[in-house]
Specification:
It contains 13 helices and 22 strands. By secondary structure, the chain is an alpha+beta fold. It folds into 3 domains: about 1-40, no CATH class; about 40-155, no CATH class; about 165-355, no CATH class. The strands form 6 sheets. Strands 17, 18, 19, 20, 21 and 22 form a 6-stranded antiparallel β-sheet that branches.
């Protein structure tokens, strides 16, 4: 049953409460009367668990101001199961332990008054059989189905990060729903990585999802964003936007073409390190006794990605608080730096912007491995007399061979350029030789005369 907002206290109640809390002033204080009330469980998540312990509650509730000026807490709740048929398992962490599940929905929202602790449980997804079963069991807990959450509250809903992380992880494999592709693992993605320190390393750190204002064909709205790269590669292939529209969670996946070669965070960090203008400004901040940190976010704007990387400086011997010192922005094939976001964007649109050279992210070894897998798939299709898959596998094999030829040509051209540079460095023309001989004669004459 729903917990009462407050308890009326007589002397015996106050005495028991004072003993349990270790404070007898609660029992003998003259300011306590029979009309006094007390909230025992003041933590909103604890209150919700006391009322309905069979749901998983989000650890990041947020507040909203209603049209009446009240402050209310919004707490997302989830139904989960590990027995849903024909579903992929994944692991979640909650309440200090891990659990394997294959079903999760954000079907319940709890609206909690921040003043008196009153809780209202709403079912926001009536197609969830688990939530509807709980409603039938605990009839006095949930609001009537025909009672909607007030618009001045629902308009401030945001996509919960807890369930978003679960969905983003599953989509690394299941973004492509073709059974043969899933079975073979031919189209796997990975979460994009970026460097969070001054010196770019080769491994990077997985990017965390982040809230930002996104502008797409569906309008401008607050969205939770995660970026994907193809498995074992660094270029961006897709990004996932989670938003709340009219009180409903909406998940949209935006995918680039396979040959678009959109620069990834690790590639951009490498370009930033090689840009002399940007690198010199960062070197000026990276002095003894300081630490530079950065965190890249990628903002979708229509069909364009805007990369924003704030750079923070921490004085190790003075304070642990990082201070914003620079902002690096990039879009398309341009990159720039400024003291603020506005200045950085202005520089990006001016002649002060640097160029980004997008390199081919496939290497010889990776392509050879992909060709071997494609040939094995073709053999399997041939053995199964699956003519449709044979055609698809042949096309894939030919595509990989073409890519291998292009990479081989690029490496050969680069090798020729390197050899030419080395030859020029080791070659001394006749004029230089004559000059050196003349200087040698002069030195000899001086030595003889002395």
């Amino acid at each position: 049953m729903q917990e009462k907002p407050g308890l009326n206290l007589n002397f015996l109640d106050r005495l028991v409460l004072g003993i349990s809390k270790g404070d007898l002033n609660l029992a003998f204080s003259s300011e306590m009367t029979s009309d006094s009330k007390i909230l025992i469980n003041r933590d909103i998540i604890t209150r919700a668990k006391k009322a309905m312990p069979y749901l998983i509650y989000d650890e990041n509730p947020y507040t909203v101001i209603t049209k009446d000026g009240k402050i209310v807490w919004i707490l997302d709740a989830y139904t989960v199961s590990s027995s849903y048929p024909f579903s992929q398992y994944t692991t979640i962490e909650h309440d200090g332990y891990t659990e394997d599940i294959n079903y999760i929905r954000n079907s319940v929202k709890v609206i909690i008054d921040s003043y008196d602790g009153t809780m209202d449980f709403y079912i926001t997804d009536r197609t969830d059989p688990i939530a509807m079963a709980y409603r039938n069991i605990y009839k006095g807990l949930f609001k009537d189905l025909d009672e909607e959450i007030p618009e001045d509250i629902s308009s401030h809903f945001k996509y919960p990060e807890f369930i978003y992380n679960v969905q983003a992880e599953v989509l690394k494999v299941y973004h492509n729903t073709r059974p043969d592709v899933i079975y073979r693992g031919d189209d796997l993605w990975d979460i994009a990585k970026s460097s969070v320190t001054r010196n770019t390393n080769t491994t990077g750190t997985y990017m965390e999802p982040y809230y930002t204002m996104v502008k797409t064909k569906n309008g401008e709205q607050l969205g939770l964003v995660q970026v994907y790269t193809p498995d074992q590669r660094q270029n961006i292939i897709s990004y996932l936007v989670g938003s709340n529209e009219n009180g409903k969670n909406v998940l949209r996946l935006y995918k680039f073409s396979a040959d678009s070669n959109i620069v990834g965070p690790m590639q951009l960090d490498k370009q930033i390190e090689e840009d002399t203008t940007i690198s010199s400004e960062l070197d000026a901040l990276n002095v003894t006794g300081t630490k530079l940190t950065k965190q890249m976010i990628i903002v979708p704007i229509n069909n364009t990605l805007l990369y924003v990387e704030p750079v923070y400086q921490t004085m190790l011997n003075e304070s642990d608080v990082p201070l914003l010192k620079k902002v690096i922005v990039a879009s398309g094939n341009k990159v720039a730096i400024g003291d603020t976001l506005v200045e950085a964007i202005q520089n990006l649109l001016s002649r002060y912007a640097g160029n980004i050279e997008v390199e081919e992210t496939e290497d010889m070894e990776g392509l050879v491995e992909a060709i071997i897998r494609a040939n094995q798939n073709l053999t399997q299709s041939n053995d199964n007399n699956d003519w449709e898959m044979m055609g698809s596998d042949l096309a894939r094999l030919q595509e990989l061979i073409n890519q291998l030829e292009q990479v081989k040509e690029q490496e050969e051209q680069k090798q020729k350029e390197d050899n030419l540079t080395n030859n020029q460095a080791n070659t001394i023309d006749e004029n230089q030789i004559n000059s050196l001989e003349n200087e040698s004669n002069v030195v000899n004459n001086i030595v003889v005369n002395e």
